[in-house]
Design goal:
disordered N terminus; eight-stranded mixed beta sheet; signal; Alpha/beta superfamily hydrolase; Rossmann fold; 8 strands; hydrolase activity; alpha/beta; 40% helix
Amino acid sequence: MRRLTLALSLGLSMAGGAPAFAETTAPMAVETPIVIGQSYALPSAVMNQTREINVWLPPGYAQSSQTYPVLYVLDGGQDQDFHHISGIAQLGTIVGTTRDVIVVGIASMDRRNELALPTDNPELIARYPTQGQSDRFRRFVGEEVMPFIEVRYRTSGETALMGESLAGLFVVETFLKEPQMFDAYVAVSPSLWWDGGKLARQSGAHLRDHSNDPRTLILTLGDEGEMMQAPMDVLIANLRDHALPGVKWDFTTRPTESHATIYHGAALDAFRRLYAVPAS
């Protein structure tokens, strides 16, 4: 009976009487947003639609008057690779291992439309009916995105283009067809398999038309099978056969990485090479 009376007493107390336990008040926390960059909705006449452009600035940008190199990142949407690559830039700034650089993310909407070359392959056309508008997307980058950035930010004129997978294919195509667009090109696991490796096979013809202007091409590939490796081997052979003294290029194999894991380490290595801090 005493146990029943105690239980009823506790129940009444918790239901409508005085609190059974003392209430504690958590300290008030001031909430502020974390802002890592600026996102623009850029109207594009070339693409006939509004496109997402994201910009990360080095921490000291607002307090300085210096100019900065610009890295343009394909698949650079906020839900794509923008945060990943701008984080590498931020780390290099904080620890002093790389120069300050502006990171511009160019978001993708239809990757095979924007990043892949046109194909006559009926199977690819059936699977990807919107494919093959990489030339148009390159015009968008060169005629609209780059001028937009150059007008609004203090840029040094030093530029680079980075992309992985289909975006890596676009990087290689741009290097071969419009080498003057950027000073440096970083292609991570480029999808050179597209259209049966046609771009790699045509690379020698494109390289014969290249000038000896200084530029850099960084290529890397993981353990990704013959379909990825074979066209890369063709591209490398053509780069060796058409060597130009002003063009620095190299190919790094990453046998411990897959297509899904290769990007972070490859991008970090590219940063350390392209934006190395000058020896004092």
